[in-house]
């Protein structure tokens, strides 16, 4: 038996068949996956003074390991702060120096506060 229900229409001397709808049942689709939320790094923003996160850098001065990943994610949160890094500039070189200085101050304060050293 066909998995479709066919309805015949008599529009000409010849009969034509038109597929109306499918009758076979389909397995229910899985619920949509919940996308990851934004990386906030609140545990880094709220660290107490004196708490250190020692970041190791490779020969090319790239942060590596779990702590390097933490540093990279933290820097991403700084870049997403719209009051510090507005998105109205298409190129980094077009962004006024005052915004770059503000970002650098945040990074320096955090560096001193949590001890980001190699």
Main sheet? 2 strands, antiparallel
Strand order of the largest sheet: 1-2
Number of strands: 4
Which term fits the overall shape?
extended
The portion of residues forming beta strands comes to: 5-15%
* Radius of gyration, taken over Cα atoms and rounded to an integer in Å: 29 Å
Overall pLDDT, averaged? 78
Helix content: 25-40%
What is the H-and-E element order? EEHEEHH
The computed structural class is: alpha+beta
> Spans with pLDDT under 50 lasting ≥5 residues?
none
Termini separation (Å)? Answer: 72 Å
- Count, helices: 3
Region (Disordered): 19-38
Summarize the structure.
With 118 residues, the chain is an alpha+beta fold.
Report on the structure:
The longest helix has 18 residues, at 97-114. This protein has a two-stranded antiparallel sheet. It has a domain at 42-114. The chain has three helices and four strands, in the order E-E-H-E-E-H-H. The protein is an alpha+beta fold. The protein is extended. The mean pLDDT is 78. 31% of the residues lie in helices and 14% in strands.
């Amino acid at each position: 038996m066909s998995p479709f229900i066919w309805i015949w229409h008599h529009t000409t001397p010849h009969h034509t068949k038109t597929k109306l709808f499918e009758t076979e049942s389909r397995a229910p689709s899985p619920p949509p996956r919940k996308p990851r939320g934004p990386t906030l790094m609140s545990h880094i923003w709220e660290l107490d003074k004196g708490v250190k996160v020692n970041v190791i850098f490779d020969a090319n001065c790239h942060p590596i390991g779990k702590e390097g990943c933490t540093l990279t994610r933290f820097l991403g949160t700084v870049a997403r702060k719209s009051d510090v890094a507005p998105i109205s500039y298409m190129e980094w070189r077009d962004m006024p120096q005052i915004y770059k200085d503000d970002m650098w101050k945040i990074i320096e304060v955090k560096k001193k506060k949590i001890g980001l050293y190699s």
